Amino acid sequence: MKRFFSIIFICVIFLLIVTPLFVWGQEIGQMSEEQVKKALEESNKQLLDNTYNEQAMTKRLNDIKGRVTTLGQEIVVKEKEVEKGEEALDYQNNLLNQRVNSYYKNSKKTPYNLMAVLFSGNLSDSLRDFFYQESIVDRDKDTIIKVVMYIKNLEEIKIQLTQEKNLLSSLQVEVDRQLAVVQGEISKIRQRIAQLSARQQQLIAQKQAALNIPRSAGTSVRGCSDDRNIDPGFSPRLAFFTFGAPHRNGLNQYGAWGRAKAGQNEEQILSEYYPNMSLKKDYDQGVQIRTTTGWSGSIEDYVKRIYEVPDSWVDNNLAVLKAQAVAARSYALKVTDNGAKEICTSEQCQVFKNDPKGGNWEQAVEATKGWVMMDGGGPGFTQYASTHGGFILNLGKFDGNGGHGSFSEVQANAYDKESPWFYCDWGARSQYSNTAWLRPSEVADIVNVILLARKNPSAGEHLYQTDKPHPDGGETWDQERVKRELGSEAFSNVTDVSVSSDFNSGKTTSISVSGDGKSTSFGADEFKNWFNLRAPANIQIVGPLFNVEKR
Q1: Strand 288-291 vs strand 342-343: parallel, antiparallel, or unpaired?
Q2: Quick one: average pLDDT of 521-531?
Q3: Of 476, 472, 480, nearest to 459 (Cα)?
Q4: Model's pTM, two decimal places?
Q5: Residue 330 scores a pLDDT above 60
Q6: pLDDT at 477 over 60
Q7: Half-sphere exposure of residue 49, counting CA atoms within 13 Å on the CB side?
């Protein structure tokens, strides 16, 4: 009996040594759970304090949700392991009973075996038998310890799994709750954006139209400018720079030029901008086209009178001009329904003049006679514009060669980076060196306008730009009045503005602003709409991807 208790004592001592290691292993496994709890506590604090960015918070919570899902998958694996362990538990219990009995019987024999060795006539054989008997006892002891540990670990893992499942369930509820809060705020913001009156939307459209945004690379319209190195006479200063013009669908004229200079031919260029269309090279050249200005003629004569890209773009055997000729021909056939309707002669359709353009352009037209991009059974809708700013909107892809995960990479690797409208600020004030730079107090005023519109939607009718009369004869509230209406939430100055963007689709997603010891954030559309309504002169943000510059 003493020998049996010694076995139990050995097992207990072993457990005291091994258990801390096992618990330590559990803590390592629980680190990710603790990290999730901490992350949720931090995000919940931001929700309560209202100091979060909606898009960034949504991404963060979705990341947390993914980690919770991964932890749940790990628990499923552990549960399957426990099930297998329980299936073997009966065998382990039987093995334990057998080994305890064997150990007890064999350990009692040891003193007698030792006496037999001492009085044996064959000392060598007796010693061999004695050590063999001792090895059996040792193996039994090892097996007993292993089985006891197996059963103990299995029970502890089952308890741990129950605790982890309960914890993950509560974490899942919390992350879903926080996501619902953020999504609710985003929904409210979208509703607020929609609450801009039809009149306000009309004024924004009129203000933007007055910029004469060029859609054709062949125009001499100034458009926007890069004011980064121009001093307006005050500092610090901020300006909002747009990538490209707003259209961004189909062929990118400056992008096509960049592709030609990189060695692509006209067919490669067309396939990049119209990947879902096919090129037909024997379309009817006798289709008659009529313009809204009274001109009529064959489709080939019509294309010779298109003035969309500079005649000097002759890189790679006229590749750009040929691609443009095919796009213009296909577009005319599509919008006129194969000549059944008239087509306008301005940039609203495509730039047409009564006199043939001649030169390299006519060579490109002749070289592509009958070439039409087909979409199914008819000509495709081959939209195009001067400058996409690095992204093809309708395809949702980067128009460049290389990385595009940051503003600097977009500027370095976009095919249309040489366009004068690739990266610039739109609008100008003559008294500030014809730039679109804004004072920090002017940016603060735009921020305050958005905050006030959120707080009191009816105030929107007073939040037009202050350097022009109210469009409907009402009262426009100036900076000081807006601050008074907003109260303690108002910003007097803005010290920093940061922009978050989705560089896969090429869209700015949010704006974060700080100053006066506080900060706030807005969705990109909300900020851009109110900016365009309130900003002075004709200063505008015109595209979906924009950045802020500070000097």
Answers
A1: parallel
A2: 92
A3: 476
A4: 0.67
A5: yes
A6: yes
A7: 12
